[in-house]
Amino acid sequence: MLDVEEHFMIKDLYRKGVSISEIARRTGHDRKTVRKLATAPLAVSRPHAGHALRAHKLDPFVPYLSGRIGEGVFNAAKLLVEIKGQGYAGGTTQLKDWLKPQRPPRQLAATVRFETDPGEQAQTDWAHFGTISHQGQLKKLYAFLMTLGFSRVMFLTFMVSTDITAFLRGHLAAFHYFGGVPRKMLHDNLKTAVLDRRSDGSIHFHPRYLDFADYYGFAPHACRPYRAQTKGKVERGVEYVRGNFWVGLHFRDLSDLNTQARTWLDTIATTRVHGTTGVVPFSRLADEGLVPLLGKPDYDTSALLTRQSSRDCLISYGGNFYSVPAAYAQQQLLIKVTPTDELRILTIEGLQIACHPLSRGHNERITRPEHYAPLRSCSTAVTTPSVQDATPRQALGAPAVEVRALAEYEAVLEVAR
After folding, report:
1. Which domains does the chain have, with CATH numbers?
2. Which of 130, 255, 278, 297 is the most buried (most CB within 10 A)?
3. Parallel, antiparallel, or unpaired for β 352-357 and 342-347?
C-alpha cells in the first residue's frame, strides 16, 4: 500500500505541473495509478472517536496545511498560529494527530560522532551578529568562522559583507592563521559557493570559488540540504563565539572588533582544553599536516565588476565617482578593488587605464587632471565650419558634433577638484 509521504509527493509534483508520464518515471508507478492518485485525497489516519468533533474543525484547513507541508513546514506550533489567523477554532491536539502521519520518518536521536583525520577537513560558516556603524553607514555585521576538523583550531573574523570577495578573503585569512590549507572544505549551500544543486545531486559551484580552490589545492564540499549537523564542529563554534566572546563585548569599530577577536582566539579559544577532544586545540595544530603555503603569492581576491563610464569621464563605485581618461568616456569598463583599497579601472580586455585610492566618503569625485587634458587641447581655437568647408556627411544634413567652449571644461575640472 502506498504510504502518505509518497502519495503527497505525487500530488505535489502534479500541482507543480510535472506530467503524469514524468511522475510515473520518477516514482516507478504506472501512469494509470499516478493519474488516480494525483487528484485523490490523502489517506490520513482517522482521529480517535473522542476527537471527532475537533478533527472536523480542522478539515477546512487541510488544503492549506498540505501546501505548507510541501514547503517543509512541520512545526505544529507555527502551523497552529497560522491557521488560527484564518479562523481555526480548535486546539493543538487534533493538529498534532493530523501531522503525525504527514511527517517523514524520524531519524534516530542518537548519532555517531564523525571525527576526521589530521588535515582532512575544515568547516566554514557565516553567522549574523546584528549591525555595526561602518564608514558612516549602518551595516549588517557577519562573522566568518573556519574550524579544523582534527585539532578544532578555530579562526574568526568579522565583516560587513558575505559576497564572494569576502568569502575568499575569509578563507585566505584563515589559511594564514593556520599556516596551511586542509584537503577538503565543508560548508552550507551558500550562494557565494553553490550556484545550483541539480536534481541528480550534482553541484554547480561558483567558478571563482572553484578557481580559488584549485589554486590552493583543496576540494569544496557542500552539505546536503537541511543537514546542517554535517558541519557540527563549526556550528558549535558559532555557539561558542556567541556565549563566550560576544556576550558583554564593547568595541569602537570593525577594526577594534577584529583586534579583540584575534586576541580572544590566541588566548582563549585555541588554548583552552576542548570539551570534545579533551586536548588544547593549538597543541594539535602541528599534527594537522596542512599543506603549507611556503611563501606562495596570495590569490588575487580583488572585487571585480563592470561599469559604464559617463560622457564626463567618470565611473561610479560605492556612491563615489572616479575619473577615466577622456578616450574611454561612455565605454563599458572593469573595476578592480584590491585588498589594499586601490580602485583600478581597466578595459574589458584587461588593460589598466586608471588607478585611484578608494574613497570612504559619499558622493565624492576623485579625479586626475591628466584624464581631461585632451579635452583642453581639442577645445582651443575651435571654429565653426562654413557650408562650403563642410564634409560630405555634414552637407547631407547629418547632425553636427557639439562643440563646447574651453570655459565649460574648465568649469567641470574646477568642480572635480
Report:
1. 4-102 (no CATH), 121-285 (3.30.420.10), 303-416 (no CATH)
2. 255
3. antiparallel
**Residue in the structure block whose three cell numbers are 567641470:** 412
Average confidence score pLDDT of the chain: 79
Residues in the chain, how many?
417
- Do residues 345 and 324 lie in contact, with contact meaning Cβ atoms separated by under 8 Å? yes
The three three-digit cell numbers of residue 181, written as one number: 590549507
Within the chain, what is the greatest distance between any pair of CA atoms? Answer: 105
Q: Please say if the pLDDT value at position 316 is more than 60.
A: yes
Which residue type does 105 have?
P
Statement: residue 55 has pLDDT above 50: no
CA distance 291 to 299: 15
Torsion-angle region of 141 (φ positive above 0: left; ψ -120 to 50: alpha; else: beta): beta
What's phi and psi for 307, nearest 5 deg?
A: -145, 155
pLDDT at residue 266 is higher than 70: yes
How far apart are the C-alpha atoms of 187 and 125, rounded to whole Å? 6
DSSP code per residue over 212-275: HHHHHT-EEEEPPTT-GGGGHHHHHHHHHIIIIIITT---SSHHHHHHHHHHHIIIIITTSPPT
Pick left, alpha or beta for residue 118 (phi over 0 → left; psi -120 to 50 → alpha; otherwise beta): beta
All 3 cell numbers of residue 351? 588593460
Are 260 and 249 in contact by the 8 Å Cβ rule? The answer is yes
Characterise 320 by phi-psi region: left (phi > 0), alpha (psi -120 to 50), beta (else): beta
Taking the CA atoms of 379, 384, 389 and 390 in sequence, report the sign of the dihedral they define: positive
